[in-house]
């Protein structure tokens, strides 16, 4: 459902690229797509190729042998790109790959731009824009959870949800426009509570999906997990223990950490950004004050705050810092290998011995997993473009509902519904500008 004008060059050009990452490998995959794809492959192989039937053969050009390969062809339109598509599996020596590609270019192909294979799939209607973006999300996934979200979107989870809402919106718009076009006919919609109730139901569906956008962003960029507490509470030691390496400087001198230190790890299938911070305490040192201000800013923007409490001290000097942060605070009693001087109710850990670290990882995992329980999370709106379009859709539907309540002219209600439809369809790629498409597909690797 692209509704885009396919550039003339796409109808005439044949593109080729290696889909395998650069470097030496056992095998590599070269793709050719376009009107000359199959004829180029037949020229190089000297064979008549049968669709979808892998053929072991030898490639040669001007009596020069290029490589022993396996060729598979898919004629248009039933291929990934919607064009004639050839995949050549060759040996993964970069010299062989370069020789084969140069031979393809000499026979009428040209080097593909980044993402051009997927762009052609979109422009030929093989996938909508959410599925094209899902390919990018899968390629860039930093965790198992983000990968699962991308795979779900590629399978149609997001687009099916959007298509269902689009169909409901089209029906509402058709009914009110029929009333506008034929006012003398007995086809007036129920512009009272019944019609408005349908708009509200649609608005609720869109809003539920919109509510998952922050979750999508966290899956994509990683959860922010901040280690905070007083100086010398063991924040840097715990960071190093969770990372399994000496990333942060550890010292018995309070206030060693003056700025945030950030590292990423994979924890229970989630990409987590661990952030070590300056200790919280009154200070007259301007540099330390700036570090403490950054600590508070990091806590405010965190998805989870590990509130470190030194069990060898009689009380927590930062106790007043935690309540304002709400349920995202997880109290952790540190230095479990030493005699405690206060009651340690809750998680206790020792960065020195590793005691309690598994329990801490499990608790963090529980918190992050609970985040996935957001209604509608099966169709995660995983990028900011979706979020912006869904927000505009929701605003237009809210205006339409308010207009009905105020008994506004039906033409204004229809205008709001058309705006909602336009915003919703933009997620799927209907009417999307060439600039937006160029920005999107330029983020892909060459050969994808």
Can you describe this structure?
With 448 residues, this protein is α/β, with parallel strands linked by helices. It is 44% helix and 17% strand. The protein has helices spanning 8-12, 37-45, 94-106, 116-123, 129-140, 144-154, 157-181, 193-210, 213-221, 235-243, 286-301, 357-371, 384-405, 410-428, 434-441; strands at 15-18, 25-33, 55-61, 64-74, 85-92, 110-111, 223-228, 261-267, 270-276, 304-310, 329-334, 347-348. A six-stranded mixed β-sheet has the order 3-4-5-2-1-6. Strand 1 and strand 2 (25-33) form a beta hairpin. Mean pLDDT is 85; it is low at 248-255.
Secondary-structure blueprint of this entry?
Blueprint: H1 8-12, E1 15-18, E2 25-33, H2 37-45, E3 55-61, E4 64-74, E5 85-92, H3 94-106, E6 110-111, H4 116-123, H5 129-140, H6 144-154, H7 157-181, H8 193-210, H9 213-221, E7 223-228, H10 235-243, E8 261-267, E9 270-276, H11 286-301, E10 304-310, E11 329-334, E12 347-348, H12 357-371, H13 384-405, H14 410-428, H15 434-441
Parallel strand pairs: 1-6, 7-9, 7-10, 10-11, 11-12
Antiparallel strand pairs: 1-2, 2-5, 3-4, 4-5, 8-9
């Amino acid at each position: 459902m692209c509704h885009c004008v396919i550039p003339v060059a796409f109808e005439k050009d044949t593109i080729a690229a290696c889909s395998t990452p650069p470097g030496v490998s056992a095998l590599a995959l070269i793709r050719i797509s376009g009107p000359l794809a199959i004829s180029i492959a037949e020229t190089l192989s000297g064979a008549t190729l049968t669709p979808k039937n892998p053929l072991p053969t030898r490639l040669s050009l001007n009596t020069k042998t290029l490589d022993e390969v396996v060729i598979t062809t898919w004629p248009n339109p039933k291929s990934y790109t919607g064009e004639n598509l050839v995949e050549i599996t060759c040996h993964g020596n970069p010299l062989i790959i370069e020789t084969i590609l140069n031979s393809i270019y000499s026979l009428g192909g040209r080097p593909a731009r980044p993402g051009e294979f997927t762009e052609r799939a979109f422009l030929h209607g093989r996938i909508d824009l959410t599925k094209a973006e899902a390919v990018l999300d899968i390629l860039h996934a930093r965790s198992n959870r983000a990968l699962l979200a991308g795979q779900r979107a590629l399978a149609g989870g997001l687009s099916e949800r959007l298509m269902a809402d689009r169909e409901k919106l089209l029906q509402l718009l058709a009914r009110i426009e029929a009333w506008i076009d034929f006012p003398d006919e007995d086809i007036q919609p129920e512009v009272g509570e019944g019609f408005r109730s349908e708009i509200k139901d649609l608005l609720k569906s869109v809003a539920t999906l919109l509510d998952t956008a922050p979750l999508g962003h966290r899956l994509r960029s990683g959860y922010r997990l901040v280690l905070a507490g007083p100086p010398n509470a063991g924040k840097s030691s715990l960071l190093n223990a969770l990372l399994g390496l000496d990333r942060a400087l550890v010292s018995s001198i309070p206030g060693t950490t003056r700025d945030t230190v950030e590292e990423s790890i994979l924890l229970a299938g989630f990409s987590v950004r661990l952030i070590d911070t300056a200790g919280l305490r009154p200070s007259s040192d301007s540099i330390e004050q700036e570090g403490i201000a950054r600590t508070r800013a990091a806590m405010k923007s965190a998805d989870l705050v590990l509130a470190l409490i030194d069990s060898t001290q009689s009380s927590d000097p930062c106790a007043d810092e935690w309540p304002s942060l709400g349920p995202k605070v997880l109290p952790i009693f540190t230095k479990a290998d030493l005699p405690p001087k206060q009651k340690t109710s809750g998680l206790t850990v020792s960065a020195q011995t590793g005691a309690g670290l598994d329990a801490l990882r499990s608790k963090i995992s529980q918190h992050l997993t609970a985040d996935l329980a957001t209604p509608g999370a099966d169709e995660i709106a995983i990028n900011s473009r979706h979020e912006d379009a869904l927000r505009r859709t929701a605003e237009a539907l809210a205006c339409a509902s308010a207009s009905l309540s105020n008994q506004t002219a039906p033409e204004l209600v229809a205008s709001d519904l058309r705006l909602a439809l336009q915003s919703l369809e933009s997620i799927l790629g209907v009417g999307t500008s060439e600039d937006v498409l160029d920005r999107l597909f330029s983020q892909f690797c060459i050969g994808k």
